[in-house]
Amino acid sequence: MAGVLEIRDLHKRFDTHHVIKGFTLDVAEQTLSCLVGPNGAGKTTLMDLISGRLKPSEGSVRFYGDEMTGLSENEIARRGIGRKFQVPAVFRNLTVRDNLQVAYSRQVNPFINMFTFADPGMQRRLDEVCNQVGLQDRLQIEAGLLSHGETQWLEIGMVLMQEPRLLLLDEPIAGMTEVEIEKTARLLKGIRRSATLIVVEHDMGFVREIADVVTVMHMGTLLAQGRIDEIEADKRVRDVYLGTEEEIV
Ligand SMILES: Nc1ncnc2c1ncn2[C@@H]1O[C@H](COP(=O)(O)OP(=O)(O)O)[C@@H](O)[C@H]1O
Ligand SMILES: [Mg+2]
Q: How would you classify the pairing of strands 17-28 and 3-14?
């Protein structure tokens, strides 16, 4: 399988705080990786470095062979790395359809969206994405009226409108009901058929259900990587969770 992402000896310092300390990782195409690790391990910072929201202090991030660290956040998104944040960023007073259209055209200007509405590529993508995220019946609803789970799916849909080759999701099931979590698991496994995903997640039941590969981060470095059963049996992994509020099993 081709390498999607090659991270080499990545470092991030905030003043004196050295948060990412020589992190190295390879991600293969069409895999769903779950990134786990105790609070403060550096998971969100790593997502910020991959998506260009933050610039690394040192090191390299290659995406399909191309170096990303010198590029702007917009350019990295244009190259095919899509990012969904922990906190939803939908336009609450626009409809679900308008939110998806805005995401496609990357323009909030409503006049520009009137033109893209006639764009057959946009319409095709909108149909595909709203089927994928299961919001076909909610297109005319204002996004502010959606449930928490639906808002998360809309936001995933907004990222999908841009047809990312790599999707980064930070804690996508936080606050969801069991039924919503089940649906999200199916949704992510569906996306994996056409893209590569890295999902930051705490819930080990969810990780067990969706992950091809589990990557464990600890104090800004890669602690372990493998199948979920290997990770759960790994003594070093169990040790870093000891004494924290979180659990690995
Ligand atoms: N802008 C920043 N300035 C200083 N320290 C930061 C900043 N952002 C994150 N950190 C620190 O980096 C560490 C890792 O944070 P984060 O990446 O959010 O961890 P995680 O997502 O694994 O819980 C934490 O100790 C956090 O306080
Ligand atoms: Mg985080």
A: antiparallel
Q: For ligand 1, pick from 11, 16, 17, 86 the residue to mutate: most ligand atoms within 8 Å of CB.
A: 17
Residue 156 and residue 82: Cα distance in Å, rounded? 9
Domain that holds residue 46: 1-80+165-172+198-249
Residue ranges of the chain with per-residue pLDDT less than 50: none
Residues in the chain, overall count: 249
Q: What is the pLDDT of residue 105?
A: 79
Closest ligand, as measured to the CA of 45? 1
**pTM for this one?**
0.92
Q: Is residue 100 part of a domain?
A: no
Q: Residue 87 has what pLDDT?
A: 64
Residue 219 lies in a domain: yes
* Type of residue numbered 132: Q
The residues placing their C-beta within 5 Å of ligand 2, an ion, are 43-44
Is 208 domain-assigned?
Answer: yes
For residue 20, the CA-to-ligand 1 centroid distance in Å is 9
What CATH number is associated with residue 219?
A: 3.40.50.300
225 Cα–ligand 1 center, Å = 22
Q: Ligand 2 centre from 7 Cα, in Å? A: 19
Q: What is the pLDDT of residues 80-133, one digit of tens each?
A: 999 987 666 899 999 999 999 988 876 555 555 555 556 788 899 999 999 999
Q: Which ligand gives the minimal distance to the CA of 23?
A: 1
- Is residue 20 in some structural domain? yes
Q: How many domains does the chain have?
A: 1
